[in-house]
Amino acid sequence: MANREEHTDVIESMTRLNVGALCTYKTDGVEDTDVEWATPSELERAALRLRELVLAGHPDTKRILEVYAQSANAVDSINEEFARDLADVAELARFAAQAGASRMTLEVNW
Questions:
Q1: How far is CA 75 from the centre of its chain?
Q2: Higher pLDDT, 36 or 67
Q3: Every domain of the chain and the residues it spans
């Protein structure tokens, strides 16, 4: 929900935490063959892993949460809101895998 391309430290943290499948990038102008896709199962595992780390208060999630907070709803705690969003991503990925999708994209608009 935040522009992670501006925050390379967030991408590094996510890679270090082994949840890199959740990293998103704009692909305008990039050849389809140069885009690295995550499978729905990889996306589900990454979402559930990061959710667990956030709820456990893992110190490497602090910066990820700071950037996420830039577009949070400010009603619930950032940890709770992010954990809920990650559970939603995992559920969407699980549905895609069950439907036989080999890759998927998520887009949020409002």
A1: 21
A2: 67
A3: 4-98
